[in-house]
Design brief:
Strand content of chain A: 5-15%
Shape of chain A: globular
Radius of gyration of chain A: 19 Å
Oligomer: heterodimer
Largest sheet of chain A: 4 strands, parallel
Helix content of chain B: 40-55%
Largest interface: A-B, 54 and 59 residues
Low-confidence stretches of chain A: none
Shape of chain B: globular
Order of helices and strands of chain A: EHEHHEHEHHEHHEHEHEHHH
Mean pLDDT of chain A: 94
Distance between the termini of chain A: 37 Å
Number of strands of chain A: 8
Structural class of chain B: mainly alpha
Helix content of chain A: 40-55%
Distance between the termini of chain B: 33 Å
Largest sheet of chain B: none
Mean pLDDT of chain B: 92
Strand content of chain B: under 5%
Radius of gyration of chain B: 19 Å
Strand order of the largest sheet of chain A: 2-1-3-4
Number of helices of chain A: 13
């Protein structure tokens, strides 16, 4: 299978490990990724929140590049996914306004976890697992932008999504039932109003802990950075690491969780290393 | 809530026309409050989400554009996704923010638009977000020089912050997008 790939700015910056784990995972699954040439920033929240025109035209340039390649477009970042989808819809609605008469590319824009949660891919993941993460309790955390607004994302069950739960179950971990799966972490405010981010992240972490989770798993790079960093300000007794879904699955497939990758977390990521080696121990003794 | 008088007779017809052109039907609100009750940031707002929709239906531009709510809205889109009357409240917030900036109204939460501007400057310049540059730009403009110093150092030493920008080849196309070329008739 061949897919076009739009990493987006975060995956070339603070979430570089997300980029690496997506690539490693796709290579394990026999999916060829072709990064679309000379892509630009999607504009993220800042563009659509303050400059509507630019908020459509920035992702539009990427859509036109992807349309030339023709393959479906894989997007790991929730914000990029939402912005690309929003621009695609806006242009289809009024191609004349956007000077793109006849705009009708037929490639799909795919967010990574619904893509991974397809039956055939879950099966492949399950088969390839060297170390199942039995016993690891995970709170699946979706955040906002891969789900909302469903008019943009086309996600049907946006209040009760299941894709991350399916993915973590495929590698043997157990997904806890908890309250804050689709709550906002206020990532777009984290620099200007860290106090708000601290309050929202605090609630999310407490809820995950209440449900007995040892870690969170997400598919949004802003959530990952914000939820890990803003819990540090709390100084509370509970700190939960936030793993990317691809990072968790890749650890299970390779049977390794390298120290180098662990160090990229701001909160101790030891629980995943232990889950990998615990399974190792179990296998050796069974 | 504000103590200024609220009356449809004094409302901005231009705002109402703008919302109509963006398919935001604020008149459809029957005040069920679902938008406000699901809002994760509501406790920090001066106007609740439902009040924003109601004021917009009356065209009460001044109250809206000077509110802190338009800047503290995190754009999570929970309200718009849940509205039983399908009012696109997220787009309403976008329209209000853009209008406030275009009119040069002093924002109730000045650091938020400063952050957005720093982010957009970074894209304007490089074609992609350059994290270190945008953080520096934000800090200089907002005056928030010391905030998150420890976090920044921690992220840097862990290799999470790249020192150098990643300019794209098509920078002139990006400059064109920012200049609004092609949309001279619509402005």
């Amino acid at each position: 299978m061949r897919l076009s790939y739009y990493p987006g700015c975060s995956l070339h910056g603070t979430a570089r490990d997300y980029d690496l784990s997506v690539k490693a995972l796709c290579s394990s699954l026999g999916i060829e990724l072709i990064e679309i040439p000379d892509w630009n920033c999607c504009g993220a929240s800042s563009a659509h929140m303050t400059r509507h025109e630019i908020g459509v035209r920035l992702p539009m340039r990427n859509l036109l590049i992807a349309a030339e390649l023709g393959n479906d477009l894989l997007v790991p970042c929730a914000a990029c996914f939402q912005r690309l989808k929003a621009a695609d819809k806006a242009i289809r609605q009024d191609p004349h306004y956007w000077d793109l008469e006849g705009y009708d590319p037929d490639f799909k824009i795919l967010h990574i976890s619904p893509f991974m949660a397809q039956e055939a891919i879950l099966e492949k993941i399950g088969e390839q697992c060297r170390q199942r993460l039995e016993g690891m309790k995970i709170a699946c955390y979706y955040g906002c932008l891969s789900l909302r607004n469903p008019k943009i994302t086309d996600v049907k069950n946006f209040e009760q999504p299941r894709s991350l739960e399916k993915i973590v179950s495929a590698v043997g971990a157990s997904a806890v039932s908890w309250s804050h799966r689709t709550e906002c972490c206020s990532g777009s405010l984290t620099m200007a109003r860290p106090d708000i981010a601290r309050a929202l992240v605090g609630d999310i972490i407490l809820a995950a802990e209440r449900a007995g989770a040892e870690a969170l798993v997400t598919d949004c790079p802003m959530c990952q950075a914000n939820v890990e960093s803003r819990q540090l300000d709390h100084g509370g007794p509970v700190h939960l690491p936030v793993f990317f879904a691809t990072e968790l699955v890749q650890a299970a497939i390779s049977g390794e969780y390298p120290a180098k990758q662990q160090r990229l977390h701001l909160v101790s990521a030891d629980v995943l290393r232990r889950a990998v080696s615990f399974s190792e121990h179990r296998e050796a003794t069974s | 809530m504000t103590d200024k008088s609220i009356s449809p007779g004094q409302g901005s017809t231009k705002l109402l026309a703008k919302l109509k052109s963006m398919n935001v039907d604020v008149q459809a609100c029957f005040q069920c409050g679902r938008c406000s009750s699901g809002c994760p940031v509501t406790e920090f707002f001066d106007l609740t989400t439902m009040e924003v929709v109601r004021l917009a239906a009356y065209g009460m531009e001044d109250q809206l554009l000077t509110s802190s709510t338009i800047w503290l809205c995190a754009a999570c889109e929970t309200c718009a996704s849940r509205c039983p009357n399908d009012i696109d409240i997220a787009v309403l917030m976008d329209v209000l923010r853009e209008l406030a900036l275009r009119k040069g109204i002093t924002p109730a939460e000045p650091r938020v638009p400063v952050f957005h501007q720093s982010f957009l400057d970074s894209i304007h310049h490089w074609g992609r977000a350059y994290e270190v540059g945008l953080i520096a730009g934000y800090k200089l403009r907002s005056g928030d020089v010391t905030g998150d110093m420890k976090l920044g150092v921690k992220m840097f030493t862990r290799g999470k912050l790249g020192l150098l920008p990643h300019p794209i080849k098509g920078k002139t196309e990006i400059k064109k997008i920012f200049s609004g070329t092609g949309k001279e008739y619509e402005r």
